[in-house]
Amino acid sequence: RVFAKWGAKRISERGWARGGAMESQRREDEKAARHAADGSESLQSGVSRSEQSRVEAARGEDGASELWRPNMALRVVTLPFVIVFLSAHALITVTLIDTFLALATLIMSRLGSGARVRLRWIQAKALEVWMTPLIGFLEHFGGLTMRVHGEKFVEGESAIVVVNHRSWVDSVALYCISRQVNAHGALKFFAKKSLMLFPIYGVAGHVLNACVFITRSASRATRRLRSEFAHLTELALEQHLAIKPPQFWMISYLEGTRRTSKKVQEAREFALERGLKPLTHVLQPRVKGFVAMATELRPAAHAVYDITLGYAHARNDEDNPQPAFTSILFDYCCGRERVLHVYQRRIPMAEVPEDEAALREFVYALYQKKDELLEQFETKREFPQPKLEWT
């Protein structure tokens, strides 16, 4: 970042930042306006011409920082770095994960339960190492600032995580959030099976066990989910294993899709048909998946983590929700700060109902609370206290 600022200053000094005739003309116009304003003030207060020149010179020194536009200047310096960083990350993914770790996974998955637990640890540590550079890039170089409110999470425990879904950035944000308890190697997402074909990273998601790929067929998806839940529970309950299985954060976007104006209207109609309260800032949750998850994972999970995300700079264009992943990588890493507001609650599994009807009401109550929080966020641009320490 220091190097980028130095380079941006050099660019600004040479007139390249937002350069060209338009920028030069703008600077000349601003200088003339300031000169005229200072001239009128000097005449009124009786300040001498020499004193006025001294003030103008001093302001000129500070003017460089005022006229310097870091967003464009930093982009010139950092854009090559971003491209190199992403290329290196992709190359490492292909070499170490999609090739060597994939072979190790293929072999170890055929062995006994002890080997499978070791494989899970390898996958978790590999995911942690794989994501750490990207998290560090976003937080320390990309201008991503986290403002976390609510209750603290517990290090080392497994959890079912319920999150509102706004954009692709939500998943990246969850890795940053999980870092507060060193759980960024424990995240597991549900994803469409077609995403496994996504170049480089689709295979990596499968090899690292970071994604549970499911089909659109309800029966096949149910079987796949129950198989994954049963496997996690079985490993957690094994008593004779020398190594305990790693923790997991099972991520669930109960809205089922990102929020758009069309989806909001469909959700309102769904709520009115069933006598539910229409929600404004989130979609109506799909409760069947959570009921199955809470039932199957109850022996293995310690709590439900209720996370609500708010983006300070998100646009109100619901058909093109912001922020986009590329905006964080390219725009906000180049001089502009991206503020991510997080409100989190920890609900122990003992407080989560077991009855299916009660679980449905539990989920609807969660999302009504999210809607209220986001309504407050729209007004105050901040979630309620208490504010948690974030480093």
UniProtKB/TrEMBL annotation:
The keyword Hydrolase does not apply. It holds the Pfam family Acyltransf_C. It comes from Erythrolobus australicus. One of its GO terms (molecular function) is acyltransferase activity. PANTHER family: 1-ACYLGLYCEROL-3-PHOSPHATE ACYLTRANSFERASE-RELATED (PTHR10983), LYSOCARDIOLIPIN ACYLTRANSFERASE 1 (PTHR10983:SF16). Residues 159-291 form the Phospholipid/glycerol acyltransferase domain. Residues 15-60 are annotated as: Disordered. This is Phospholipid/glycerol acyltransferase domain-containing protein. GO terms for cellular component: endomembrane system.
